[in-house]
Specification:
With 84 residues, the protein is mainly α. Helices cover 83% and strands 0% of the residues. The longest helix is centred in the last third of the chain and has 34 residues. It starts with a helix and ends with a helix.
Length: 84
Protein backbone atom coordinates (compact mmCIF):
# COMPACT_ATOMS: atom_id res chain seq x y z
CA UNK A 1 0.00 0.00 0.00
CA UNK A 2 2.79 2.45 0.88
CA UNK A 3 4.50 1.88 -2.47
CA UNK A 4 1.25 2.61 -4.30
CA UNK A 5 0.82 5.84 -2.34
CA UNK A 6 4.34 6.90 -3.28
CA UNK A 7 3.75 6.27 -6.98
CA UNK A 8 0.43 8.10 -6.86
CA UNK A 9 2.08 11.06 -5.10
CA UNK A 10 4.63 11.25 -7.92
CA UNK A 11 1.84 11.14 -10.52
CA UNK A 12 -0.05 13.89 -8.69
CA UNK A 13 3.13 15.97 -8.52
CA UNK A 14 3.58 15.66 -12.28
CA UNK A 15 -0.04 16.46 -13.09
CA UNK A 16 -0.09 19.48 -10.81
CA UNK A 17 3.14 20.78 -12.35
CA UNK A 18 1.62 20.51 -15.84
CA UNK A 19 -1.48 22.41 -14.76
CA UNK A 20 0.65 25.02 -12.97
CA UNK A 21 2.70 25.63 -16.11
CA UNK A 22 -0.52 26.10 -18.07
CA UNK A 23 -1.18 29.21 -15.99
CA UNK A 24 -2.93 28.14 -12.79
CA UNK A 25 -2.24 30.50 -9.87
CA UNK A 26 0.14 28.90 -7.37
CA UNK A 27 -2.14 29.64 -4.42
CA UNK A 28 -4.54 26.95 -5.68
CA UNK A 29 -1.89 24.26 -6.20
CA UNK A 30 -2.30 22.51 -2.80
CA UNK A 31 -6.08 22.30 -3.26
CA UNK A 32 -5.65 20.93 -6.78
CA UNK A 33 -3.14 18.34 -5.53
CA UNK A 34 -5.57 17.10 -2.88
CA UNK A 35 -8.45 16.93 -5.38
CA UNK A 36 -6.34 14.99 -7.89
CA UNK A 37 -5.05 12.74 -5.09
CA UNK A 38 -8.58 11.91 -3.97
CA UNK A 39 -9.65 11.26 -7.57
CA UNK A 40 -6.73 8.95 -8.28
CA UNK A 41 -7.17 7.07 -5.03
CA UNK A 42 -10.85 6.46 -5.81
CA UNK A 43 -9.96 5.24 -9.31
CA UNK A 44 -6.96 3.08 -8.42
CA UNK A 45 -6.98 2.02 -4.77
CA UNK A 46 -9.24 -0.65 -3.33
CA UNK A 47 -11.03 -0.17 -0.02
CA UNK A 48 -13.83 1.69 1.66
CA UNK A 49 -14.77 5.23 0.71
CA UNK A 50 -13.34 6.72 3.88
CA UNK A 51 -10.04 4.94 3.42
CA UNK A 52 -9.80 6.05 -0.21
CA UNK A 53 -10.58 9.69 0.62
CA UNK A 54 -8.07 9.81 3.47
CA UNK A 55 -5.47 8.14 1.22
CA UNK A 56 -6.19 10.73 -1.48
CA UNK A 57 -5.68 13.59 0.97
CA UNK A 58 -2.39 12.04 2.10
CA UNK A 59 -1.30 11.58 -1.53
CA UNK A 60 -2.08 15.21 -2.40
CA UNK A 61 -0.38 16.66 0.66
CA UNK A 62 2.63 14.40 0.11
CA UNK A 63 2.96 15.66 -3.46
CA UNK A 64 2.81 19.29 -2.28
CA UNK A 65 5.39 18.64 0.45
CA UNK A 66 7.67 16.79 -1.95
CA UNK A 67 7.60 19.70 -4.38
CA UNK A 68 8.12 22.27 -1.63
CA UNK A 69 11.03 20.36 -0.12
CA UNK A 70 12.78 19.83 -3.46
CA UNK A 71 12.24 23.47 -4.38
CA UNK A 72 13.74 24.70 -1.08
CA UNK A 73 16.78 22.43 -1.46
CA UNK A 74 17.34 23.68 -5.02
CA UNK A 75 17.02 27.33 -3.99
CA UNK A 76 19.46 26.77 -1.12
CA UNK A 77 21.93 25.07 -3.46
CA UNK A 78 21.74 27.89 -6.00
CA UNK A 79 22.08 30.51 -3.25
CA UNK A 80 25.18 28.80 -1.82
CA UNK A 81 26.74 28.59 -5.30
CA UNK A 82 26.27 32.34 -5.87
CA UNK A 83 27.76 33.23 -2.46
CA UNK A 84 31.03 31.38 -3.13
Amino acid sequence: MALELGFLAAIVLGLVEVVKRCGMPTKFVPLLAVIIGIGLSILILVGGWGEMIISGIVIGLTAVGLFSGASNVYKGFVKSKTNV
